[in-house]
Amino acid sequence: MNATSPEAAAPGRIVLLTTSHRVAPGLLSWPAWQALRSADRVLCADGAHPQLPYLREAGTAVDEAAPTAQELIDACAGGRTVVVVATGEGEPALTDGLARLAGTGRIPMPDLELLPASYDLPGARLLDLVQVMDRIRAECPWSSQQTHKGLAKYGIEEAYELVEAIEDGDRDELREELGDVLLQVVFHSRIAEEDPDAPFSIDDVAGGIVTKLIHRHPHVFGDETAATPEEVKEHWLRTKAVEKQRESVTEGIPLGQPGLALAAKLASRVRTAGLEVPLPTGEGLGYELLAMAVRAEAAGVDPEAALRVAARAYRDAVRAAEGLDA
């Protein structure tokens, strides 16, 4: 009787190759290409997998097959290496089947390697958000009818909820509210794509802010230096003034913001510009609040935030008077 050769008895090797749908197809790591080039067989259950055209263009033969766990083990017999290009779900049925067979202890198992062929870059999940928003805009009866004006109130609400989460120090709530604010940006950008006269996309929005940040940080991306936060602010204001070419320091201040915040912003612009502007005199509480907001800004205090802190204390006192927990 002939003895089985070591080569024939060798269990072989299975390489499960995973890729990210957020990375352009064909951009694979060098270890992934090495595994593909040295494989005895390459399998993929998804005939529409975005990587397949690029693999074949590179000379890699790919069999469109969905083997069972046992069939895959058999394909590795004789020490062969089989690479499985995983679908988006990661082949859970196949890996579960391999685990069950390994658990019996009766079958020589091939070496199993999980090889990430491409990785998500930081911010890659933003691509998912853009795709989800595209589908919602196209298929949701409510979302498909929304306009910039119709959504404006939600932007204000989400901004206030974000501020509340920050002031409460609630990290979970902060993460959620940041997502809600981000949704407003993506939603408005998606609506803007449909404008017949002046369309723009989320890429245009992102590109614009990237350009602005680089231009306004010459101490980071250019030859200027800034050793203190004050010097950074001077750079920012100087470049912003050149960009906007405003005639008045009051230009660009949204008059629709809360009154205390508006007064503080005006006072900040005046102080930064080195102007001497006497406060207007008049009768009534409004002028008193204006003077208080200006004093607060000069002292480095955000009057809007300070009033919210006091208002919360007042709320707690009201609840205590009602016999309720604060």
From TrEMBL:
The keyword Hydrolase applies. It holds the Pfam family MazG. GO terms for biological process: dATP catabolic process; dGTP catabolic process; dTTP catabolic process; dUTP catabolic process; response to stress; TTP catabolic process; UTP catabolic process. The keyword Transmembrane helix does not apply. Keywords: Hydrolase. InterPro entries: 4pyrrol_Methylase_sf, MazG-like_dom, NTP-PPase_MazG-like_N, NTP_PyrPHydrolase_MazG. This is Nucleoside triphosphate pyrophosphohydrolase. Residues 146-221 form the NTP pyrophosphohydrolase MazG-like domain. It comes from the Bacteria. Its EC number is 3.6.1.9. NCBIfam families: PRK12334.1-4. GO terms for molecular function: methyltransferase activity; nucleoside triphosphate diphosphatase activity.
